[in-house]
Amino acid sequence: MTSQPNPEPHKGFGDLGERPWKAAGLPAHPGADPAAYGRSWETLANALSGFLDALAESVPGRETVEALAADLTTWSDKLKPLASPERDRVFGRRTDLHGRGQSMSPKLVVIRSDRDSVEGTVHFGSYFLGGNGAVHGGAIPLIFDEILGRLANSADRPPSRTAYLHTDFRSITPIGPDLSIRAWFVSEEGRKRILRATIHHGDTLCAEAEGLFVALRPGQP
Ligand SMILES: CCCCCCCC(=O)SCCNC(=O)CCNC(=O)[C@H](O)C(C)(C)COP(=O)(O)OP(=O)(O)OC[C@H]1O[C@@H](n2cnc3c(N)ncnc32)[C@H](O)[C@@H]1OP(=O)(O)O
User: Fold this and answer.
1) Ligand 1: which of 108, 142, 161, 166 to mutate, most ligand atoms within 8 Å of CB?
2) Residue 102 and residue 219: Cα distance in Å, rounded?
3) Gyration radius of the chain's alpha carbons
4) CA nearest 97: which of 110, 84, 85, 86?
5) How far apart are the two ends of the chain, measured CA to CA in Å?
6) Alpha-carbon distance 185 to 30, whole Å?
7) Per its UniProt record, what CDD domains does this chain match (predicted)?
8) What is the mean pLDDT of residues 177-199?
9) What is the CATH number of the domain that holds 45?
10) Which protein residue's CA is at the shortest distance from atom 22 of ligand 1?
11) In the predicted model, is pLDDT for residue 5 greater than 60?
12) Most buried of 5, 64, 135, 176, CB within 10 angstroms?
C-alpha cells in the first residue's frame, strides 16, 4: 500500500534553496528516505506515543508536572527554529513505518494488503481513552480515515480526499488489546471511490465505516 504524491504540491511556501538539514548529512527529502535516520525516527515515534500513554495514565506530583512542562518547553524551543515546509517534513510521512512515524493516530500494523483491500491490527493506548475503558468516539473515525485514505490512494491511483466518512459504533472499542482492522474497496467509478472498513475485538464488531473518496482534479488542494 503506497501513497501517491499530490501532482500539485501545496503552494504557499517559498523556495528554501539549500535545505539546512543537508549540512547534517541528511538527504533533500528525509521524510521520503527510510535510510535517512536509520531506526532513530521509529524509536522517537514509539517514545512519543509511549510518553503520551504514560502521561494519560499517571497522576504525577506537582513538582513532576512542573519539571515535565519545563523539559517539554525546552524541546519545543529547540525544534521551532527547525520548522520546515510541509513537503520536506518527516512526521507522518514515513510510510515505511507502522504509524507513519507520527503520534496523531493510533499505530496501524498492516499484515496483508493488495490493490483493493488491507488487513492489520490497531492498538489504542490510554492516550485515546474516551471513558470507562472505551476509545474516544473521535479516535475511531481517525483510524478509519487513515486506513481508508491510504487504501483509496494506493497502487497507481491518483490522489483523492475524503468527501464523507460515515461511522457506526456497534459496541465498545476497548483501550489496550490489539484489534483487527480491515478495509476494502466497494466500488470505483470515475472520480468516486467507495470503501468500507471494520474494527473487531475477537469476534465482536466494535465499529464499521463507509467512506467516499473523490479523486482530485489537477490543481485541487
Ligand atoms: C492528497 C491526498 C491525502 C489523502 C488524505 C486521506 C483522506 C483525508 O483525510 S482528506 C481530508 C478530509 N477531506 C477534505 O478535506 C475534503 C474537503 N472537500 C473537498 O475538498 C471537496 O469537497 C471534494 C474534493 C471531496 C469533492 O469536491 P469536488 O472535487 O468539487 O467534487 P464534486 O464535483 O463536488 O463531486 C464529485 C462527485 O462526488 C459527489 N460527492 C462529493 N461530496 C460528496 C458527499 N459529501 N457526499 C456524497 N457525494 C459527494 C458529488 O455528488 C459528485 O458526484 P457525481 O459525479 O455522481 O455527480
Assistant:
1) 161
2) 27
3) 19
4) 110
5) 22
6) 32
7) PaaI_thioesterase
8) 98
9) 3.10.129.10
10) 163
11) no
12) 135
Domain that includes residue 75, residue range: 1-221
Count of domains observed in the chain: 1
Decide: helix, strand or coil at residue 217: coil
Is the ipTM, as predicted for this complex, more than 0.90? yes
Ligand 1 atom 33 nearest Cα: 214
Residue nearest to atom 20 of ligand 1 (CA): 161
Q: Which residues contact 94 (CB under 8 A, 6 or more apart)?
A: 31, 34, 41, 42, 45, 100, 101
* Band of residue 18 on the pLDDT scale cut at 50, 70, 90: low
- For a substitution probing ligand 1, which of 187, 214, 216, 217 has the most ligand atoms within 8 Å of its CB? 214
Amino acid 128 reads: F
Q: Would you state the pLDDT for residue 23?
A: 76
From the CB of residue 171, how many other CB atoms can be counted at a distance below 10 Å?
12
| pLDDT score, position 17 | 57
> Of ligand 1's atoms, which has the minimum distance to the CA of residue 146?
6
| Cβ–ligand 1 contact at 211 (below 6 Å) | no
